[in-house]
Amino acid sequence: MGDPYVHPEVLVSADWVEEHRNDPKVRIVESDEDVLLYDMGHVPGAVKIDWQGDLQDQIVRDYINAEKFAAICSRSGIANDTTVVFYGDKSNWWACYAYWAFTLFGHKDCRVMNGGRKLWYDQNRPVTTEVPQYAPTDYKVQSSNEEKIRVFRDVVLEHSKSGKPLLDVRSPKEFTGEKTHMEDYPQEGSLRGGHIPGAVSVPWNRAVNDDGTFKTADELKAIYESEVGLKSTDDIIAYCRIGERSSLTWFVLTYLLGYSKVRNYDGSWCEWGNLVRVPIAKGA
């Protein structure tokens, strides 16, 4: 059978979601890169939380504040004790991004639907275009996990200089500097291509199967431990281009493998590639 995930409770199956989608203590949240997908069809009862329009501040490059986050939860029928289950496109990149944002604001019970939107559709499960309406809650942000799971550029620079583990989870050509974004995307967002000195290339998609589900614990250990040489007690920073792909890697290392100190650099390459007086590296 192999080793189990360290925190298997954070992953739920499509069967579980279908059984619990009408449970008043559970809220299903869809979060996609393609913000039009939800309107084309979604899990019945699911609400949409837009990573850019909802979770990002529209004036400052940062997340929304606690008051706005509480308002989003309230309008979505999410209370402090609600089990929130995220799913989305792109093998749950954006679901993990939303999960990470909810964790920043201290929400206690967050989970991810293994396989995401693709698996739900591939299995011909029920979908609807109806947008649900829930009674608003009195949500209150009670704590913050920012220091534990988020990191900023000055800390990343010291981390790089000290030789601590840095994971670049972008595509190989982004890592080498040949591209500043993934293939088939506009090559924009940063003035320079390359990677943070000392970073190791471990593309995010190595952690998932073709059907969008996560690989087994043994398969993940073969990548991150046997191949890359990480230990569960390492101080690890992950980054990508804007922090969404690295949220998936953060989720994998933190919950599926049980690593104790993994932080996401959501400034990522769009910030680092434009910073004055910081070093970059090119090539493999």
From TrEMBL:
<keyword id="KW-0808">Transferase</keyword>
<keyword id="KW-0677">Repeat</keyword>
<feature type="domain" description="Rhodanese">
    <location>
        <begin position="160"/>
        <end position="281"/>
    </location>
</feature>
<dbReference type="Pfam" id="PF00581">
    <property type="entry name" value="Rhodanese"/>
</dbReference>
<dbReference type="InterPro" id="IPR001307">
    <property type="entry name" value="Thiosulphate_STrfase_CS"/>
</dbReference>
<dbReference type="InterPro" id="IPR051126">
    <property type="entry name" value="Thiosulfate_sulfurtransferase"/>
</dbReference>
<feature type="domain" description="Rhodanese">
    <location>
        <begin position="22"/>
        <end position="129"/>
    </location>
</feature>
<protein>
    <recommendedName>
        <fullName>Sulfurtransferase</fullName>
    </recommendedName>
</protein>
<dbReference type="InterPro" id="IPR001763">
    <property type="entry name" value="Rhodanese-like_dom"/>
</dbReference>
<dbReference type="GO" id="GO:0004792">
    <property type="term" value="F:thiosulfate-cyanide sulfurtransferase activity"/>
</dbReference>
<dbReference type="InterPro" id="IPR036873">
    <property type="entry name" value="Rhodanese-like_dom_sf"/>
</dbReference>
